[in-house]
Amino acid sequence: MLRTEALRSNRRRQNAPIPKIAFLAGWVALLAIIPVIYILIRALAGDTELWQRIIQTRLIKLLSNTMLLVLTVTAGTTLLGVSMAWLTERTDVPGRKIFRWLLALPLAIPPYIGAIVHLALLRPRGGLLSQWMEGINLPSIHLPNPTGFWGAAFVLIIFSFPYVFLLSGAAFRSENASYYESARMLGRTPWQTFWQVTIPAIRPGITAGALLVSLDILSEYGTVALLRFETFSSAIFVQLAGRYDRSAASILSGVLILLALIILYGEFRTQGRAQFTQIGSHWRPATLIHLGKQRKWGFLALFFTVLVSFIIPMGLLLFWSTQGILDNQTFTGMQIGSRGLASFIFNSVWSSGLAAFLAVLFSIPIAIYVVRHPGKVSRLFSRLSQVGYAIPGVVVALSLVMLVNRFLPFLYATPLVVVMAYVVRYIPQAVRSSESAMRQLSPNLEEASRLLKRNAIQTFIQVNLPLILPGLLTGSALVFLSSLKELPATLLLRPAGYETLAVRVWIWSEEGFYFQAAPAALLLVFISIIPLYFLLRREAIFKQ
Amino acid sequence: MKLEIEKLSKHFSGNQHPAVDNITFLMPAHEILSFVGPSGCGKTTTLRLIAGLERPDQGIIRLDRYIISDAHTFVPPEKRNIGMVFQDHALFPHLSVFNNIAFGLRGFSKAEKKDRVSELLKLVGVEPLAKRFPHVLSGGERQRVALARALAPEPVLLLMDEPFSSLDAHLRLEVREQIRNILKVSQSTVIFVTHDQEEALFMGDRLVVFNQGKIEQIGFPETIFHDSGTRFVAAFMGESDFVSGKSNPTGFQTELGLLEQQNDYSTGTDVEIAIRADDIDFQVNNQGNGKIINRFFRGAFNFYRVELDSGEIVHVYKLHTEIYHPGERVMTYFNAGHPLKIFAR
Amino acid sequence: MFQKLLPVFVALTLISSGCAGTTSQPDPISFNENGNILSGKLIVYSGRSELLIQPVIAAFQEKYPQLEVLLKSGSNSQLANTLLEEKTNPQADVFITTEVFTAHALSREGIFQPYEPTGYQNLPDAFKADDASWVGLTQRMRVIMYNKDLVSQDELPASMFDLSDPKLKGQIAAAGSTNASMQAQIASMIQLVGQEQTEAWLTGLLENEVTFFGSHSDVRKAVGAGEFELGLVNHYYYYLQLAEGSHVGIIYPDQAPGEMGIISNATTAAIIQGSSNLSAARAFIDFLVSAEGQKIFAEGNYEYPLLTGVALHPDLVPTDGLSLAKIELAQVVDHFDATFDMIDMANLP
Question: What ipTM was predicted for this assembly?
């Protein structure tokens, strides 16, 4: 009811002269889109010979590798996420309330850490599993090869599924019993009801989640580099790290961005239809499905997923960390130049924190403009500001290096460039949650405040801000979490002496120094759990 | 204080017709003026133009001597000293009742705020709720707090935008009466918007009837009801049915027979006659001019819906003892006892 | 609630601007003639892996405790790119590479400034820039290491070109094309035996299902663990693995007369043109080529120190006992693009 009211009165505002907020919003949209424009220009400016060479040698292969990975992981996360959500929300499987939390925890583990664990366990002759099997004299079963396509796909599915899990969980939870019951009354079996009523109702949300996962996979660098499966992202990184000329990297980046923009556009189209919190006044929760004898299979499925996605990785990290602490070489090995572990933690936290703050700050004008002045222009600005979803970290780094050095040299080689990269890349998350928070506010509140003698700015500070603050904090938690885990841009942009936990974990693991990498990885996960906990608590699905 | 509206217009892009079309009227102090009309008629837009929440395309709005809106001036809402109560009360969820009411009291000292807020809490009858938050209040309580909040800074004009439409039906009557009393006690100058005819007739000292952006009629409730200026007002406000007729020197020839009534129409003009259920009567008659479609039991009366042979629908009141059944043919005739309103076709 | 968060945000902004301050350009130095009091920051870009450069940096820091050494490690080419980007806005003071080609290329771009450290004359001319813009620090050999448990003496390959022997299919580990030493080897081979033969060698490696790792540490550990029979590495990786107790052996390939010889290279150090802490940079270069510094490389990393008179690690084979390939430095650098092209066309991982 409140939503249609807001729509009705918002329609009236189309006639006002260009509101001042539009300019602020326009600036933000411009800042968000500059890196993309720059890359596309550089890509198109590359000479045709280079284009030809790239197309000949690698483009097809990269394209097929990347798309194959994206499709497989998206399908896998959807299957896993939806089935886990269904088990924990719609059935009477034991312990489902705890599982709802446990299954979300892998979000605190960056996928490349998962890849490190995966590699360490499954390496054919040097891996922990095979060593353990030799130790207890088991005949060596042929272990799956941890590297390559299947290894990368497996790791990415295991650590990305929570996103789809949370979204479909919310959808299942808001399912209205009356839809389900009317379907049954009209002669559908439970199974048919599931496919013909439940799934179509939650499909928009799943689609949105799946598309966002696929954008994530396009950007993914650490995992595919470690597991040696070449995708666009890792190829661009190799070009940047291994060649003297940026043109090839720009060209590959251009293609990657176009690919990602297509997916992002698709996601924008489905976004409007993903309604989950439209809980009307006569809503009743759907009744649980009794699994009966199948309960144990449900439980095992849940348990096994948690085991593989959280317990085993954390267990291994703890094991290495304790080994590392016992070996006193470890801490001296953690010194890089004159910087130690404390500075890595500090850098991780303050850069992610600042990025979160700036991202939310910049998202506010966009949110106000879109929600209070809906129309083609504001929607365009909103979409432009979300282009960051489509720019992988590697590409952000590439464009910022070129732009900052040319136009903002005083910022160059400071940690602020790293923060800029985080903001450009993750501001879409802040924009979405700010917009959503603004939408919940009835415009009447602002009007009432104006009539009670507050001008526009005072109204924003005294009325809007306190009420949208929870939404803003959600956005900042999301950006904080993402920035903590970020790898490729930080690797490329960091000034000398500036290391974050993510970078350290990566470099130490690359060299095989698991005793140093593990404590850093553990710290990274523990720090990540804080914003994650905050996010999960706010999710409606956890309100009993 | 006097509100003057002169040739006010507002056109929203994308709509064919203007929302507010060249409106002019005056309003004295201490009056409750009801804006009434069907949805989309322009009453709420006019209200919002007065509040300053929309900018007019043309026209002048004057409050006492001051021009608050014309081609060169636009006083922003926070400077107009106008209060507003919204349909969904719009109480600030993060502030207590006390702080909501105190919100408009800028520049007051703490003691002054306390005094004024207590005054208002007493006026609207929500003293025990001062420390509570809006979400625990009932619908009626919320509207009263919204009223208190709007009145607190002593605005020269109070605007109310369908404030009771979100309340349950039975509550509405009770709250309505309480609010009207409060408004009269505080001697407020009020513009009250509603789409409910009965509410408008009850609340307003005078009514303004809107239709498609224009004012159909301004007048006292009795005038609007009994002496409707246009066919629209008669239909919308007057609970009228319409019967067509042709004028002649003595009156009008209609399906229901000859209506003897002095008139200035030239002979042969087609007209419509506005009738109410108490202006006509019927007898059961197989050769009649219509048949009963439905009977509505109204306690002391029965309310009959009759379809005339021409297809027009009319309504007739009968005592509760007189019971007739759907399908029965009847002869309907005039039985008004006073002149009826005539509108040219 | 907003009021409570405001001080947090303010604090964050202050901290961040403070941090931005601390990692921007270093403070002016105060410098004692004896070189004992150096302060400020020394920014070192290192293409060498951190493990291998950290000991010498730590020793240098001990000597000059007032000085703050900030290290940025990455690959040679990544850092070279960065230095080229930074040419008009130099950030670094010293650049350390794992091979000479990058140093030479950058020197031609005018990125470095010349400096003759103490003991300059005791360094071999072959590993110094003509204009003293860079100096070699240590020498390294491209060798083949093997796992003694998996391969017997008579099965050992004797030449790089034996690595495409189908007998060894799937049994070889090497570093991938992003590794500077690997790139340097390919570039050297193009100059030594020509493009066709090098290309054939590369193709042969791919057909022999060589597994390409990200770094040599991975390679040596894999060979040490018995995952692979053979590994193509720099010599000191063999010694590092041996020191961990693995049962491994080393082959110095192409030693027969008429054969290519061992492909060698050197790590280098150079001072960046526009460095803001010149005295510290010079002191650092001095330290790297001093007996003290060279000893750390020799004993800790099993490298071949270039300063005459510094003792090799006892386990190492002295260079005069080895047949080394004759590489024309300038020619290789001129044709380095050919190396990248070849890598791309061959689709080397």
Answer: 0.79
